[in-house]
Write a structure and sequence with these properties.
Blueprint: E1 4-7, H1 22-34, E2 43-47, H2 52-61, E3 68-70, E4 75-78, E5 83-86, H3 92-112, E6 117-118, E7 126-129, H4 133-147, E8 154-158, E9 162-167, H5 172-183, E10 190-193, H6 200-205, E11 208-211, H7 217-220, E12 224-225, H8 230-240
Parallel strand pairs: 1-2, 1-10, 2-3, 10-11, 11-12
Antiparallel strand pairs: 3-4, 4-5, 6-7, 7-9, 8-9
Helix pairs in contact: 1-8
Length: 241
């Protein structure tokens, strides 16, 4: 029996830069509210690469009271206590490395990609956003070249509109495990839906795994692919569960 359904945001709950599909979004909220009194319905949680403020806003919109993992696995927001917790992997020494990487990223944008955005609200990783996938491909390549000298400390993941350079030990697999530890619900009773390479570590270890029709091939390969996109796929999976 699945007791928690963890969902990604970009590419699953929403399409970046677009208004959400409100019909499915509202249906997700209604079903999550019903889960508070019906143990047969899994409760929603969030597992996203986005920073905490955006993830918290999504949790409020969907009336989520389960853990919200942000920055892939760097931090946890508790909607009940409104407290933020950081992964134990975020040591002072690691923060120095992240700061050095963030300065490099800012210089890269200023020098070569002035119309790209550096995700300034992030604390544990470095994120770039651009609406041109060709630019994203170039940034991805440069990021991989940059972190190659860091002895595996960082990993690079991308979507069509974003690049995330995350701590390897703070990926979405560790994020899903954190939800399990925090709630006491074993991984085999937690489902997850994701759409990109960054979601693969969580998709591989969840009790049930899903991907929307818009997902990358690497995500579909380790999950149950659905025939509808984004939040419509999230709702379809939720009803299946």
């Amino acid at each position: 029996m699945i007791r928690i359904f963890a969902v990604d945001i970009d590419g699953c709950l929403t399409i970046p830069f677009k208004t959400p599909h409100w019909e499915s979004f509202s249906a997700l909220r209604a079903r999550n509210m019903a889960a508070k009194t019906d143990p047969a319905i899994p409760k929603l949680a969030i597992l996203t690469g986005r920073p905490q403020p955006y993830a918290e806003a999504m949790a409020q919109m969907l009336d989520i009271d389960q853990p919200v993992i942000f920055e892939s696995g760097g931090g946890l927001f508790d909607p009940v206590t409104t407290q933020v917790h950081w992964s134990p992997e975020i040591t002072p020494e690691v923060l120095v490395c992240i700061g050095r990487l963030r300065r490099w990223a800012a210089e890269l944008i200023a020098r070569e990609f002035p119309d790209a955005m550096l995700e300034f609200a992030k604390h544990t990783d470095v994120g770039f956003i651009h609406q041109d996938s060709a630019v994203i491909d170039r940034i991805t390549r440069l990021c991989r070249e940059r972190v190659a000298c860091e002895d595996g400390l960082f990993s690079v993941h991308h979507t069509e509109i974003s690049v995330n350079v995350i701590l390897t030990r703070c990926d979405k697999g560790s994020g899903l495990r954190w939800i399990s530890e925090r709630t006491g619900v074993p991984l085999e009773q937690i489902a997850y839906i994701g759409d990109s390479s960054g979601d693969v570590p969580a998709l591989k270890i969840a009790g049930r795994s899903f991907s929307p029709s818009n997902a990358a091939a690497v995500a579909k390969a380790v999950s149950t692919p659905l025939d509808v996109p984004t939040s419509q796929a999230v709702l379809k999976a939720y009803l299946m569960l």
